[in-house]
UniProtKB/TrEMBL annotation:
PROSITE patterns: SBP_BACTERIAL_1. It comes from Candidatus Magasanikbacteria bacterium GW2011_GWA2_56_11. This is Extracellular solute-binding protein family 1. Belongs to the bacterial solute-binding protein 1 family. The keyword NADP does not apply.
Amino acid sequence: MVLSLTGLEAPRGGKTRRWVSLAVLGLFFVTLGFGCKGLSQQERAAVKPVTLNYWTVFNDTEELKRLASEYRQLRPYVKVNIRQVRYEEFDRLFLNALADDVAPDVVSLHARWIKKYQNRLAEMPASVSTARLIVKGGLTKETQVVVDTTPMPGIGDIKRDYVGAVANDVIIGEAVYGLPIALDTLAIYYNKDLLDKANIAEPPATWDEFLEAVKKTTKFGPDGKIVQSGAALGTANNIDNAFDILSVLMMQNGVKMAAKGSVQFASGLDKAGETHPSLQALRFYTDFARPTKESYSWNETMEPALDAFVRGKAVFYFGFAYDSSRITSRAPELNLEVIPLPQLNPSAPVNVANYWVEAVVKKSKHQNEAWDFIRFMTAPDQAKRYALSTGRPSAYRTQIKELADNPRLGPFVSQTLIAENWYHGEDITQAEKAFDDLITATLRPYADKDDPTKRDAGFIATAAQMAQQTF
């Protein structure tokens, strides 16, 4: 039996299926001690059983199991164990696992977590070496162990093949720290029946139209309390996506959020005052929670935004593609539609990128297999299958046009080219808290001695300082 070294991937098509099935059979015999006579020590080492422990948070676990199963057909000696970890528990569990030397091999990290965990992650290699078993011959069978040296996507490949947000997030210096299987963007869900009842035939396409729709669909009771919200906007305590919504409003208004490690959304506040684009965006957002404003449709005493929307108590909900299954599972009869986010300046559109990156832990003893599995699961054909199955957009440029025609995916996919992350610090939780505190402070009533512009500008400056501390 011969150990063959080749720079080719496993053959594709019908021949692959035949070779894989024989390889599985051959591995079965090798494992039991039959048919392994003559295998060299190098050959045995190449197909030694490997278990990859993979932690994920929000990825679709059924799709991940399919990917793990298909990968095992290609590499029968590799088993992938998938564990879903709660978002709020990931940091504690991961750090404890690292300390106890029982860390996973592969982790799914939010793109905004990469800098935080950078020192714990392996840099993606230029290539990986993994083995296959093939059986050749007629009456006399010969088993070969074939070692594939497979190139990984390089920096140039990532910049060419993926939408721009990916390269900006996963490449630090000259190193790549992971690859995505999907990339999400912010859109607006709406209750079509409630729009119809308000005699609004078409969903809003601009922010002005959106404001009119909110005013027409917000209803108040005899006591002045909101009984139907036009839009769940304006607060922080009961809106999960407040950080992203306020960020994108600022960016659409021309704000440079950060550059070269410096938080900049408060720059020039002292000179611009009332006309500063960050202050304008902040007030546009918080006006939805101010009873004195025409756009008033929400406040801090109301239930969580998603809960109100699925119960038919809110007409518009700002969310991501992953929210779709959460909404339909809780409200299957809801006449649900989605529209892309309106743009303040159509000639310079912008959205936010919200997605997860598959990365390898530096302590993993199975670097080749871990990176090869990531290469396999994030390949274009797998990303497309994942998108169609889960409703989460692909990050590949070549798939945008096709997936944009999909009713479920279209509103989100159509925005992937203009989506970006401004935050590249080490503690997104603190940055989100800074925005939450900014929104909450801005909603407080003005004291008689307050200069509203100076007060709110001060809150923006404080939020920028808090965010800067994490860079």
